[in-house]
Amino acid sequence: METPFTDHLTTADYEQIYEPAEDSFLLLDALEIELTYIKSLQPQVCLEIGPGSGIIVTALAKELKGTLCLATDINPLACSATKKTAKRNDTCVDSINCNLVDSLREKSIDLLVFNPPYVKHEDYNIIPLN
User: Fold this and answer.
1) Neighbouring C-alpha atoms within 13 Å toward the C-beta of 2
2) How far apart are CA 90 and CA 58, in angstroms?
3) What is the spatial order of strands in the sheet that 68-73 belongs to?
4) Does this model's pTM top 0.85?
5) Geometric angle at alpha carbon 91, from 88 and 96, rounded to 5°
6) Distance of CA 60 to the CA centre of its chain
């Protein structure tokens, strides 16, 4: 699976959205390994929650011809970046500014992708449960 171009995004963009990093590329690799199986499912609707720059959903949109590819994010700048990434890579992704799946009909997604942000425990103050 081809890694989408992101040369249209700037340092200023990455101050507001998640820049593709090792976890993004690992997810792309994992999806590529499973691509034959994913295609066999013939998903009609694919959703990525929290797309950041949009590279994951854009890569899927390029591979899943005929599938409606959506992205949802609470950050309107991520929604805009995702649309731009799809356009830069000659594909289409509909990006919706909302929380998780709040704007979507129940049971309307065939393929869901979510690469949530995380904080390494060394970088985060853990509060004891007691």
Assistant:
1) 12
2) 9
3) 94-97, 68-73, 45-49, 111-114
4) yes
5) 90
6) 9
Residue 50: which region, alpha, beta or left (left: phi > 0; alpha: psi -120 to 50)? left
- As a whole number of Å, the end-to-end CA separation of the chain is 47
SS3 at position 25: helix
- On the question of pLDDT at 41 being above 70, the answer is yes
Q: What is the mean pLDDT of the chain?
A: 92
Q: How many CA atoms, within 13 angstroms, populate the side-chain half-sphere of residue 128?
A: 1
CATH value of 43-116 in 3.30.70.1130, 3.90.550.10, 3.40.50.150, 3.40.630.10: 3.40.50.150
pLDDT(122) > 80: no
Between the alpha carbon of residue 126 and those of residues 85, 116, 118, 121, the distances in Å are 36, 19, 13, 7
